Amino acid sequence: MLTDTLPLHRPIAFLDLETTGISTAHSRIVEIALFLVHPDGREEQNVFRVNPGIPIPADAVRVHGISDRDVIGHPQFSALAPTVEALLRGCDLAGFNIIRYDLPILTKEFQRSGRTFPLAGRALIDVMTLFHQRDGAQLQKRNLAAAVRHYCGREHVGAHSALADARATAEVLRRMLQRHRDLPRDVGLLHAYCRAARG
Questions:
Q1: Which helix (H) or strand (E) holds 193?
Q2: Strand pairing report for 92-95 and 43-49
Q3: What is the mean pLDDT of the chain?
Q4: Which of 11, 19, 98, 125 is deepest in the core (most CB within 10 A)?
Q5: Cα–Cα dist 47/35, whole Å
Q6: pLDDT per residue over 58-82, tens digit each?
Q7: What is the value of pTM for the model shown?
Q8: What is the SS3 assignment for 157?
Q9: Which 3 state secondary structure label does DSSP give 3?
């Protein structure tokens, strides 16, 4: 359980997005997963399939397997924005490459919906940053699957499913804290550590 290694004073949400592409300015969300860990150790998961309102490119479909047909009848992000905002209210945020990828795309989607998504006052923990700073440099691959293999001793089943990625990221963080005893055991200090590691 994550709270055995990282005491929490408020929930932390592990966020993962599947999208229409790699551009943080133009990509749209097709699936969003929020895996919340509460201070008492309780876990909560929410997954939303999203109609991006634009065609999903073949390159993106090859990554996550979500096609135009799969989003028919699902809401666009603007309809989900109030729910996502409510679920994340009062949460710190974590993810794998969350700073450079997931958060810019999510913020842009909120802007398109006529809403703001404030990050001020939240701790942001980028597990990819920790992985690259600690052990990633010595590995041939430095993605989430490599982190799961390295820290958890297993293959990452369900890679590029938003929920599988969010849950795997939480597991990697827990195992990383167990292995590297000098990493901070405080969310705020981990936030500062990630920021310093990014330069």
A1: helix 187-198
A2: unpaired
A3: 94
A4: 19
A5: 9
A6: 999 999 999 999 999 999 999 999 9
A7: 0.95
A8: coil
A9: helix
* Sign of the dihedral defined by the CA atoms of residues 118, 37, 65, 82, in that order: negative
CB atoms within 10 A of CB 57: 12
- Which phi and psi angles does 30 have, rounded to 5°? -115, -15
**Bridge partners for 49 per DSSP:** 31
Provide the edge-to-edge strand list for the sheet that holds 92-95.
43-49, 29-37, 12-19, 92-95, 124-126
Residues composing the chain: 199
Looking at residue 136, its pLDDT comes to 67
CA pair distance 173, 19, nearest whole angstrom:
23
- To the nearest 10°, the Cα dihedral for 187, 198, 95, 170? -60
Cα separation, 26 vs 74, in Å, equals 20
Residue 80 token pair: 């989900």
| Pick from 120, 129, 135, 147: nearest CA to 190 | 129
Residue range 92-121: mean pLDDT, rounded: 96
pLDDT at 49 over 80: yes
